[in-house]
Amino acid sequence: MKLLALETANEQCSVSIVDDAQELFFQLDERTKAQTQMILPMIEKGLQQTSLQLEQLSAIAFSRGPGSFSGVRINAAVTQALAWANDLPVIPVSTLQALAQAAYRLTGLKEVSAVLDARMQEVYIGSFQLDEQHIMRPVAEEQLLDYETARQAVQFPLVGSGSALVDTAQVNYQQITATAQDIAAIARVQALKAEWLSAEQALPVYLRDNAWKKIPEQGKA
C-alpha cells in the first residue's frame, strides 16, 4: 500500500507519502497562501524521491475542510484531477480531525476540541477522542458556530487557531496546525481496509454553504 496525502486547507502546504508502516516522504511549506504554486512541485518531488509513479499509488488522501476556503478548494481540485487522470480512489479527511491528530502527535493529548477561526465572528469546532488504533475519532458533529455558542460546545482542551476566540484562558495549544502527516495517519487506517471513494467524490466541505459570497467580508482578495 502506498498513499499520497495532501494538506492545503490551513493556508500552508504539505505533502506526505506513506506505506503500510512508515513515512516515505514529507515536505512542508509554511509560507501563507503558497499552495497554488507549491503543491504540484512538492508532489513531483515526493514521487521522485520515492521512485513512484502516480498510477502505482493505492489512493490519494486530502484534507477536505472545513478551513480556508481557497485552501480547501485547491486541495480538493488537485486531488480530484490527479485521481481522475490516474484512476485512483480518494480518501477525504476532516481538517478538524487532522488538527486533533496533530495535537495527539505533538502533545500526546487524547481528548481535544479542535477549533479553527472561520472569520466573521465564527469558528469551526469538533471534539475528538483517541481510539485503540491511535486515531482521533469524532465524538460530536462538526459545526460552524459563533463564539458564544462554541463555548457551550467545548468538551475537551482546545487546540487550533480558534482557541483564543472561544476561551482566552485556553491558548496553550493555539499554534498547533495539521500537516499531511496527520492526513496520512488517519487515511492509512482506511486505506488498509480499502475504505475509499471514487475520484468524483473528492469534494470540499465548507460547513458554510454560501462561503463564496462571504469572501469579501472575510477581508480576502
TrEMBL record:
<dbReference type="InterPro" id="IPR043129">
    <property type="entry name" value="ATPase_NBD"/>
</dbReference>
<feature type="domain" description="Gcp-like">
    <location>
        <begin position="35"/>
        <end position="144"/>
    </location>
</feature>
<comment type="similarity">
    <text>Belongs to the KAE1 / TsaD family. TsaB subfamily.</text>
</comment>
<dbReference type="InterPro" id="IPR000905">
    <property type="entry name" value="Gcp-like_dom"/>
</dbReference>
<dbReference type="Pfam" id="PF00814">
    <property type="entry name" value="TsaD"/>
</dbReference>
<dbReference type="InterPro" id="IPR022496">
    <property type="entry name" value="T6A_TsaB"/>
</dbReference>
<protein>
    <recommendedName>
        <fullName>tRNA threonylcarbamoyladenosine biosynthesis protein TsaB</fullName>
    </recommendedName>
</protein>
